[in-house]
Amino acid sequence: MAEGPWTTEVRYVTGAHKGETSRAEACRPAHKRSASGTRTALRAAAAFRFGKYGYEGTSVRDIAGDVGVDAALVYRYFGSKEALFNDVSGTGKIFEPLLSEPVEAIPDWFCALLMGPPREGDFPHPVLSVLRSSGRDEAVARLRADFTEVFSQRLAARLGGPDADLRAELLAAWMLGTSLMRSEIRPPALAAAPDATLERYLRAGIEVLLGPAPGESEETAGAEGEGHCVCGNRPDAG
Question: Region annotation Disordered: residue ranges (predicted)?
Fold first, then answer.
């Protein structure tokens, strides 16, 4: 089963914080990284630390130490701690692949993203890097902007029909809420649900949101708005 996009590249990065032993040290490759590989490793370490400890609880030295490079290299590649935070806390690029999927394949995409048992040591949920960073109002605003662009605008335009923007945002809310519950909160029923059962419910809800509200049409909506009883418009109504 496919894993979430935030788990594949960075699971090995745990870092050392307040006495913790870094597993990243043991998993660090012996050969010298390319500049691109070092940037990727720094992003992974930063994403983990910001997600787990928040902005204030993470230092550039910690991030560099996880990767085995000098802190000066972080500034060279990213400019500042804040710029690195902004780089890894943006979610727009995570959901970009969704926009290239045919609408009928969206349930497959979401299920692949959400399925699979949660495991200890997985990379923290991406939104936690914002929620755990007090005073990062600009990051919350950017998170909102990312979701507005991907879901409220671009995905909604592809869905069409009544309340397309609301339906697209509900898809985002359900996806984020479900992934956060499964990866971080882990309530017993959701954590123990068989994949087939979970997928059945996920698909049912996603497919409802991909189309207009069941049983509603512009004609019936208009009739209700004028205060008429819809049943009274039937030819056989008395």
Answer: 213-238
- Does this model's pTM top 0.70? My answer is no
Each residue's pLDDT tens digit, 201-220? 999 999 999 988 655 544 44
Residue 226 CB-half CA count within 13 A: 10
How many helices (H) does the chain have, and how many strands (E)? 14, 0
Residue type at 59?
S
1-60 pLDDT, tens digit per residue, is 444 444 433 332 333 333 443 434 433 443 466 788 888 889 888 877 887 787 888 999
The DSSP symbol for 123 reads: P
Nearest to 178 by CA among 163, 166, 167, 193: 193
| Whole-Å CA distances, 108 to 4, 73, 143 | 13, 40, 24
